[in-house]
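Kindly review this protein for my students:
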Amino acid sequence: MDRTTHVTDRPARSAVAYDPGARAGTPHLRAARVLAGNWTGTSTVPSRALYPHQWSWDSGFVAIGLRHLSPLRAQTELETLLAAQWGDGRIPHIVFNPSVPLDAYFPSPDFWRSSTAGRAAGAPRTVQTSGIVQPPVHALAAWLVHRADPGLSRARGFLARVYPRLAAWHRYLLHRRDLGGAGLASVIHPWEQGMDNSPCWDAPLARVTPAPARTFRRADLAHGAPEDRPTDLDYGRYVRLAADYRDRCYRDAPAGDAGAGADAFAVEDPAFNALLIASEHALARIARELGATGTARRARAERLTGVLVERLWQPEAGMFLCRDLRGGGPVPERGVCGLVPLLLPGLPRDVADALVRTLAGPHFGARLVPSYDLLGEAFDPHRYWRGPAWFNTGWLLERGLRTHGASARADALRDAMIEAADASGFAEYVDPHTGEARGATGFSWTAALTLDLLQAKDVNGAKGRDRG
């Protein structure tokens, strides 16, 4: 750890917005400054203005970068999130800060009503959360954070405390969310998959009757350009799905269960499941660190990799596709989610090779990896998840390229991401061709993952990174 850029573990005195004109120092220092400004004392907000609470998979990626500045803060980031876990094992996608006004973000705590509507599912009584989830990157993050300072981790009992919670989280996904009955976890809302506005969701969402516009107010439009954000129609569908799930007390229903509603959304997503498998591998390593064998978890990860390939791999597309459980088949849209399984070490060689070719081919071969097919009818380089490049998916793919021996491509992607992140003011997302900033700037996971990429580059590329 570079002590000269250590960020204090004490609470920040005030909110510090990122100033795109603050060009003093190195990219490393500028990224660290973003994370210092977004630190609340116990966790990191994605963006002070647009996202003023704690988000689930954001905190996983933030912890991965924070480990290079302060392993203690990285551990605290994950511990704060896990403290809001529900009794059934789910980790909610938002943990609300009670000091933030209700109208600062929608849907707010009074929409989710977690402590009442979620009582049967074991929602915590002392903190307000949402009722849906996000991709399970957390065990991978916990393992990498442990490896950053094993002595501190062991002294604090970090892994011993988080392991039972992470194991319960995976049980929830593998049992309560196996809605298709094949072994993969399903998402029941686009917000759960994390790539909210992807064209991959257009067909499944078309069955959903949107909530009337007068029943909600979009706080996001006060901080982002409307042309960069989801449409009002799509947002109305998001609200309808979330309200219906809340009104059935956050009960998960199999795909054929009429109680779930005829227009309910249930999709098996390759990226969500790839992160679950990667985190199963990480849990096996954590189990070994704690004195167990981890054999069962390794076997489960290998079995799930086989199910993922059997169920979602589409050779003619050269990538994985989502499966719409209500519609009964693959979704014929190429989203970056279909490339993320490259992260997995157990992929068949022909599948991994095809993914590398697709990543470099006409559908995704921009300077920065787009979130959606460059040749798709719905491609838009500026609109939220419908074409812009995101730094978390780029980080996962850079890691996947190295896993499967494509080091030169990984180096090129890494360097392009570092340059674009710094030049854009650590933007939420960017134009995949030009790197032009879109969405919020001073975005936490962009800064955090830039730190991780810089650390790897500074110590001779991938040789210096703990691949876990």
